[in-house]
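Q: Here's a chain of 251 amino acids. Please give me its 3D structure as C-alpha cells.
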Amino acid sequence: MFIRPTSLFASLILFTNLAFAQTSTVAVAANMKDAFNEIMVAFKASGKAEMRVVYGSSGNFAAQIMNGAPFNLFIAADEHFPLELFKNGKTVDEGATYAIGKLALIAKTSSGIRLADSKTEIARAIAQTNKVAIAKPELAPYGKAAVDYLKAEGLWDLAKDKLVYGDNIGVATTYVVSGAADIGFTALSLAKSPEVAKETSLLLVDAKLYEPIKQRMVLIKGAPQESVDMYRFMQGPQAKSILQRYGYITP
C-alpha cells in the first residue's frame, strides 16, 4: 500500500524533478549506505559516469517512484517494494536479488549494557534500557524484521513500550550511536561500519526468527545508460566482494 503525496510532498517532487533532471539518480536503501559508497568508488574507477545517490527507506522510495519521482534505479532493502512497482508498471522488469541482509542488535558501549546470545540476556538488556531503536516496520524491511524477531522470541511485550522508530534503518542506528537509545536493531552492514563499531557492541540475532531479508533492485522505465551500467555492476564480482565484506550474502 503506497502513501499519497500531500501538496507539500508534490512540491518537493517538482523541485526534485528540476534538480535531478540532467543526472542519473539511484535510490538506495539506508542499510546499504556504507557498502554502496564503496561500490560507487569502484564503479567510477572503472570509468563509469557520476551518478546522484539518495539514501532512505524502501517504503518511502517506492511511494515516491509511484508518484513520479525521477529515480532511475531503485536498490531496495527487500523484494516487496520493487515487485509492487513492477506490478504497477513502473519498472523495466522484476529486477534481480543482489544480496541477503542480516539483522543485528547493537548497544551503546558507554551504556554498560552487555549483549549475549541468549533470550535471557537479551531480555535483560531490554529490561535495563528505557529505549529500543528500530526502523519503522511499515517503511523499512529491517524494522519489520526486528518486530518479527521480537515476537518470535517472545520479547515483544517487554520491548513494545520502549520502542523508538526511525524513518529508516540509518536513523534508527544513529539513535544508538548518539546515545538517544541504549540499544537498537540495525542491519549487520551498518553495525560493521567503523563509525558505528567504535561506539557500539554487536550481536547477530538468530536469522531463523525473521523472514530472510532478500534485497532486490529494479530499473525504472526509461533509465539512462549509467543506471543500466550500475545495475549490471551490482551483479558483478567487485560489488559482490564489497557486499560480502559488509556481511551480506550474495547470490
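Q: Can you summarize the key feature?
A: The longest helix spans residues 7-20.
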